[in-house]
What we know:
Elements: H1 5-12, E1 18-22, H2 24-33, H3 36-41, E2 44-49, E3 61-66, H4 70-78, E4 89-93, H5 99-109, E5 113-118, E6 124-127, E7 130-132, H6 138-143, H7 150-167, E8 173-176, H8 182-195, E9 210-216, H9 231-238, E10 245-249, E11 255-259, H10 265-270, H11 275-302, H12 305-355, H13 367-376, H14 381-395, H15 400-410, H16 417-420, H17 460-469, H18 494-497, H19 505-509, E12 512-519, H20 524-536, E13 540-546, H21 552-560
Helix pairs in contact: 4-5, 7-8, 9-12, 11-12, 12-13, 12-14, 13-14, 17-20
Signal peptide: 1-31
Organism: Sinocyclocheilus rhinocerous
Protein name: Syntaxin-binding protein 3-like
Amino acid sequence: KLQGTPCKLKRVVWVLHIILILDHFTTRLLSSCCKMSDLMSEGITIVEDLHKNREPVPEMKAIYFMRPTAMCIDAFINDFKPKPKYKAAYVFFTDYCPDDLFDKMKKSCAKHIKVCKEINISFLPLEAQVFSCDNAEAFKSIYTPNSQDRDQTLETIADQIVTLCATLDEYPGVRFKKYSQPKLAELVDNKLARHYELDDNSKKKGKTQAQLLIVDRALDPVSPILHELTYQAMAFDLIPIKDNAYEYKLKDGSKKEALLTEEDELWVKLRHMHIAEVTGQIPKLVKEISASRGEKKQSDEKISIGGLSQLMKKMPAFRKQVTQKTVHICLAEDLMSRYQKNVEKLCKAEQDLAVGADAEGQKVKDPMRTLLPVLLHPHDTTDKIRAVLLYIFSLNGTTAENLNKLIQHVKIEDERGYILNWEHLGVPILSTPSMYSFRKQSRRDRSDEETYKVSRWTPIIKDVMEDAVENKLEVKDWPYQSECPSAWNGSRAVSARQKHKGSSPDDLRSGLRLILFVLGGVTYSEMRCAYEVTHANKSCEVIIGSTHILTPRSLLEDIYKLGKQPMESFTIEEDNP
Length: 577
């Protein structure tokens, strides 16, 4: 599992009483899977920033955990020129260090380096089944027209994907969505082959029971735009949460901050539930907190000297449980307040446009009639942009005349890039005669699945996951970049071929593994799908990752920054009546 990464990192930290020096990326990497107490237990006494001025400590040794970039190498060399800041250096790179940078470091300060190793962890393990390259800037590099650094960005991403596979000890077969990013699939496959050319026993490593699918953000433009009503996705959409930190207010007016991470067991339990189910848990949580406080009061009155020690040992765990429950009571109430105030009025229209049918299953014949109430209501501009985009996506592009009217209605004449720039991703905005024959991706039949009326849409990537697990991906739509293991080449479901004994993390590791990489950002709803498909098909673990994690608002800003359309370049000829 990705959250097993700390074990690998701990093996790096093996010298007692030492300084750990990190760059920006490795700081985030360690923060995603280790606590300071974990580092201290391994002998780390000080953690420093590689790029900041630091006082020399010549009697101490230093571990450098950094990316193999020119900036990091230069900063490292400066620590030992002209006079060394530390007694010795133990250098660990996140991934492969280019020969020119390695030679530069060796020539400058080889005598100070006691260890130099590449440990292949150039990604952030955000959750048990989710990873990120932590590279939001890649979006601009990849999708900006005539980008000068697209190829270099793809090279970097490919290196990061290879380190993920190496950490998981997987050599997967590689497939990609046709017409998306074949270049990235080719890079990853070639780099995997080089990485596994020889193992520790000087033998070539064969393919493992894993498959890597590479998809592009254009595969599903709908999921990142919809108002998703599961707990985690809803929280990151409606509340300004930065670096997983949620600020909430208590009844006495004081403000507190909580981290929404896997350390919070209640968060892990609730995050993929629909908000209706979460709010159903609130009375139970309130009752448990009240009961716990009552028990504590009684124990305080009856406490004996002999029981004091046991009580003190239980107090941290008690406080932690009460705090977690308080956090999620506040968060759920906050979300419901925002939902009832504004989002509730949007959801039905959004779902009808996305699904193409209403809650009763009747086909939406006139999408404009569905959109119009949203445009007439005083929603904020961003919500109206989201609704307009869903309308355009439902039609697979609209006429120039209609688009102009929509832009004027939302009052974004000078900010039309929020809509027009989707074409840089390959998403049709303006319809053309040749596009009338464009066939939308067929969807799996989910009519038998129970859903909420305001949550009928299923991310397309869940269809992809399920089709992959059942070996139903069409080769014409999903070409092979390299041969996949025999388990993925059959014609029937993986689950029928793989006998599975249990569903614990250890059991899952012994089965098949499907890795999906979404170039251009992954949504929280798509992350949820990885867990759902894994749970439903216990013979196959699904891991999902991307260049970065996105929210609807962050994606719209990224789209807008791809290039503002000058007014004169957007000359539209109106259709003839």
